[in-house]
Design brief:
about 300 residues, alpha+beta, Jelly Rolls, about 20% helix, globular
């Protein structure tokens, strides 16, 4: 994503923030949910989006699928009977995504879960598996692929289609407390980010899953899961009668700082290191603060 042309989000509708925003956020992410997020690094949020918000998000996803950006990646093998596509950083050009990010309680929920005064947009990520896709998403942490350091962060994984338990995102509870583990490419398992041997290797979670605290939930449209960027997670294939369109959006809290890398991050932010010093807060038009709302 170029830092030169990215605009701020479209202005919210008149009257934003709505009077019920903080109330909705406190209802869907009450004190018990916040405590679970801090303890486990992942929680389920039932009814996070209302029907109108869900329909707007669905419009954004369908627009993205019809016109993928140059950053889109096909993440399934050529012999897969289905199709798995990802795309990143589309909110500047996708009104449905902007409305979802700006005009729903997402940022307020993010601030509660992070126990942060503020919540700043990081980036969006579309993940769609068409019916019959065999490709699994292997166990991994997200933060080692990113250009940030700090503990106050959250990712939302929001499906607009029903998701069965065996196709959902799974999490290893408590793994957000560390350590950082070696990120590898999903297709070839190469260490293309941190040098070989510089981080601990991922344990064989599948071999030990019967004794591990693995979390996962079947989801209906409007539900979501929220997870820390260091929480180990994975996702299964989808059945031949089930499509899985997912919008993921990430938020940053008060303690997050810029950590330029010598390699291409996922997603890339070309030129950002020339504009934002290492160790600086993420105060840049690419990462607009969305909570608390401006006066």
């Amino acid at each position: 994503m170029s830092t030169a042309t990215a605009p701020l989000p479209a202005p919210p509708h008149p009257g934003w923030p709505r009077a019920d925003t903080a109330v909705r956020a406190a209802t869907v992410a009450d004190d018990a949910v916040v405590e679970a997020y801090q303890r486990d690094g992942a929680v389920v949020l039932r009814g996070l989006l209302n029907p109108a918000e869900l329909n707007r998000l669905r419009e954004g996803l369908d627009e993205n699928l019809a016109r993928p950006s140059p950053r889109a990646i096909v993440a399934s093998q050529p012999d897969d009977p289905g199709f798995f596509i990802e795309d990143f950083g589309c909110w500047p050009d996708n009104a449905g995504y902007r409305d979802t990010i700006v005009s729903t309680p997402l940022a307020a929920v993010a601030a509660r879960l992070m126990r942060s005064h503020g919540a700043r947009l990081y980036h969006d990520h579309m993940l769609t598996k068409e019916p019959g896709t065999r490709q699994k998403t292997p166990w991994h942490q997200d933060q080692p692929y990113y250009n940030i350091d700090g503990l106050q962060n959250v990712s939302f994984w929001i499906p607009v289609d029903p998701v069965r338990r065996h196709s959902t995102l799974e999490f290893l509870a408590g793994s957000h407390r560390g350590p950082w583990l070696m990120p590898r490419t999903f297709m070839t398992h190469q260490a293309r980010w941190f040098p070989e041997g510089s981080l601990a290797e991922l344990p064989d979670i599948e071999a030990e899953r019967d004794r591990l605290p693995i979390l996962g939930w079947a989801l209906e449209p409007g539900d979501a899961v929220a997870f820390h960027m260091l929480t180990l997670h994975a996702a299964g294939p989808v059945d031949g009668d089930r499509r899985r369109r997912v919008f993921s959006v990430r938020f940053l809290g008060d303690d997050i700082r810029h950590a330029p890398r010598s390699w291409r991050t996922s997603p890339p932010f070309d030129g950002l290191a020339d504009e934002l010093p290492a160790g600086a807060p993420m105060d840049h038009p690419l990462f607009p603060p969305l909570w608390p709302p401006a006066a």
